[in-house]
Structure formats: structure tokens, C-alpha cells
């Protein structure tokens, strides 16, 4: 007679298999997270080295570039990411546009029309610009009527201290006005050399993780009512009642306050929404808030607090100006974090501080 399993035996076998799967899943998840974190660090390393190679070829770091002279949308220029494409094995994509003569937008600020000749370029995802642990769709609907491919890596645009009131109240953060020189490494028209980094390249941030936005705006919802993941990916809109100061050092009038973020009911979801377009919210970060801060980002007229954030628990990966990559914990003191964002602030930041 042929032997056969009884129903009870089959149930026992199934139960054992289920237990084994339950035990293996956390281990598999940890392996996947470790692999994603390693890939993220490798991307940051490649981007930092690309900036160094650009520096070797041009005797300066790349910078955000305003649109060509005469453009009515002067701040709608190319990003740092656009200039380092040839240095991350993306020469064909980099040859599809000419930053010095081909402008990104036509028309009047704040919402010009995106140059249709660059539509296929702007919407092309670049693997090195994307964190594999971020599950958001990489393509975003951006201003100007054309979709853009996004990025998870932002360049250091400064400490985020109030540009308008640095003398009277230097501790107050109010974002960074990208149109004017900042205390970081990158702004519109910047030509920073590594020799300008007086604080030391191993003590100065170059790039950091960011979370890409939800690609959808939310109106009429208080911060407390947002889903946890929305809180991390959206930033508060605070343009109403404020004007952008048109002379250096720039900034907003009146200045931003924490309440503009915590009491907001209007939110924007295009954080990290473009690798080609040089704007603070698309591919810049400042140190106004510590990494993964519970205070939401906030912006008015394109400037404000744009934080380093990551999908990894406890902190963010950063690339320093010497090309090294570090994991910075959320608990880093704000003074140390802001000190790391300045290139020549004279702050003392030991290796054990971050």
C-alpha cells in the first residue's frame, strides 16, 4: 500500500514552513536595507568624486547656473547635477543640452514655460541620482508644463541662517536665498574652489540624502492630520504675505518662523522633483533643521528650510567635501550640523561630533 500524509501531518509541515518564513523575513529585510544603504552611499561617493573631477577640469566646483543673460526668468537655470553628468558616465545625456546658450524656461517668473527642446532630457531618470530605498515614482509634474525626473541627492546650499538678519539675530534660521552667495558650497553662479573651504574639506558637507516628494500638493490639511510619510515628504507653502528681497543677501520679508511650518495647511510635494533644474527645493539642502527633523520644511518664493532626510532609520548619509561618505545621526547638535554646512565659518567640529 502507498504511504500518504495525513491531514494533520500536512498541517504540521505547513505550520513549520510558515514559522521558518516568519523567521527569515526580518533577516531578508535587513539584508535588503543594508544593500540599499550601501548603494546609497556609493551614489553619494560617485557624485562627490564627480564634483572633484569637475573641479580638476575647471579649477572650481560646479554651481547652480542662472539662465542666460537677458532671460526674463533669471533664476531658472541648470543644477549642479546637470554639470556633473559627464563625470558619472552620462556623457550622452550631458550632450543633449548646452547650459551656456540653451535656457530651461521661457516667459516670465515665477512660472515660465519649460523649453520643449529639453523635454526628453529633463524626464530621463539617472540611476546615480536615485536612492534605491525611496519608493516614489522618479518622474514629477513640475512648473512649466513638462515632467522632470527627480533626485534623492541635494547639494549643500548653506547653514540656512537668516540672510536678512545675520547681524541682529544670527541664531535665527530663515533658509537660503540661492540668488546670492551663501556660506555653503553652492548657489547661483558660485565658483567655489576647494582652497576656499577654510574649515577643511573633511569638516564641510557637499551633498546629503533627501526624500523625494509625493508629487502632489495638499491644501486645507493641518500638519497633525497628514499621514506620517506625508509629513516627511511635503513642505509647507508660506509665500502669502511675504516678498522676496531683491538685493543681497536676499531672503524673505517678513522672515519665516517655525509656526509657518507647524501651523500650515498648504503643502507642496515637488521636493527633489528635478535633477536638471537648479532650485533649492529640487536639489538643494540647508542646515536650518537637523536631519529628519520632526519640524516640517517650509518655503516662500522658492526659499526656506530644505532638510536632509532619508528612508534609513536614525540619520542620513552625507558626502563631505573631501569625497568621503558618512552616516550622520538625527541626534547631531544643531550647532555642529550648521557648522558642517559652512565652508569658512571657523567652527570646530571633531570627528566624534557627527
Automatic annotation (TrEMBL):
NCBIfam families the UniProt entry points to: IV_pilin_GFxxxE, pre_pil_HX9DG
Alphabetical keyword list: Membrane, Transmembrane, Transmembrane helix
Entry coiled-coil feature ranges: none
Residue ranges occupied by any DUF1559 domain in the UniProt entry: 29-333
Pfam families: N_methyl (PF07963), SBP_bac_10 (PF07596)
Organism: Gemmata obscuriglobus
Lineage: superkingdom: Bacteria
Record-given protein name: Prepilin-type cleavage/methylation domain-containing protein
Positions of transmembrane segments: 6-28
Amino acid at each position: 500500500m502507498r504511504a500518504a500524509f495525513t491531514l494533520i501531518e500536512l498541517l504540521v509541515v505547513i505550520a513549520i514552513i510558515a514559522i521558518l518564513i516568519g523567521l527569515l523575513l526580518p533577516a531578508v529585510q535587513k539584508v535588503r536595507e543594508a544593500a540599499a544603504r550601501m548603494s546609497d552611499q556609493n551614489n553619494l561617493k560617485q557624485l562627490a568624486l564627480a564634483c572633484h573631477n569637475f573641479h580638476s577640469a575647471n579649477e572650481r566646483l560646479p554651481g547652480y547656473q542662472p539662465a542666460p543673460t537677458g532671460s526674463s526668468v533669471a533664476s531658472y537655470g541648470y543644477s549642479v547635477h546637470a554639470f556633473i553628468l559627464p563625470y558619472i558616465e552620462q556623457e550622452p545625456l550631458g550632450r543633449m543640452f548646452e547650459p551656456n546658450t540653451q535656457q530651461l524656461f521661457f516667459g516670465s517668473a515665477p512660472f515660465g514655460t519649460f523649453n520643449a527642446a529639453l523635454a526628453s532630457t529633463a524626464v530621463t531618470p539617472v540611476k546615480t541620482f536615485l536612492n534605491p530605498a525611496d519608493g516614489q515614482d522618479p518622474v514629477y509634474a513640475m512648473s512649466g508644463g513638462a515632467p522632470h525626473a527627480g533626485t534623492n541627492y541635494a547639494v549643500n546650499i548653506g547653514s540656512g541662517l537668516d540672510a536678512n538678519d545675520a547681524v541682529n539675530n544670527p541664531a535665527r534660521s530663515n533658509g537660503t536665498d540661492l540668488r546670492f552667495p551663501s556660506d555653503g558650497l553652492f548657489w547661483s553662479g558660485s565658483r567655489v574652489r576647494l582652497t576656499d573651504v577654510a574649515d577643511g574639506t573633511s569638516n564641510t558637507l557637499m551633498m546629503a540624502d533627501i526624500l523625494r516628494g509625493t508629487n502632489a500638493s495638499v491644501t486645507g490639511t493641518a500638519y497633525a492630520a497628514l499621514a506620517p510619510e506625508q509629513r516627511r515628504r511635503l513642505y509647507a507653502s508660506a509665500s502669502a504675505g511675504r516678498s522676496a528681497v531683491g538685493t543681497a543677501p536676499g531672503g524673505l520679508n517678513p522672515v519665516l518662523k517655525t509656526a509657518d511650518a507647524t501651523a500650515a495647511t498648504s503643502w507642496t510635494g515637488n521636493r527633489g522633483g528635478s535633477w536638471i533644474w537648479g532650485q533649492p527645493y529640487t536639489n538643494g539642502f540647508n542646515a536650518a533643521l537637523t536631519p529628519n527633523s520632526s519640524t516640517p520644511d517650509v518655503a516662500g518664493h522658492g526659499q526656506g528650510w530644505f532638510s536632509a532626510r532619508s528612508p534609513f532609520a536614525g540619520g542620513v548619509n552625507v558626502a563631505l567635501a573631501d569625497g568621503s561618505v558618512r552616516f550622520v545621526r538625527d541626534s547631531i547638535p544643531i550647532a555642529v550640523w550648521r557648522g558642517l554646512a559652512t565652508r569658512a565659518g571657523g567652527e570646530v567640529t571633531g570627528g566624534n561630533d557627527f
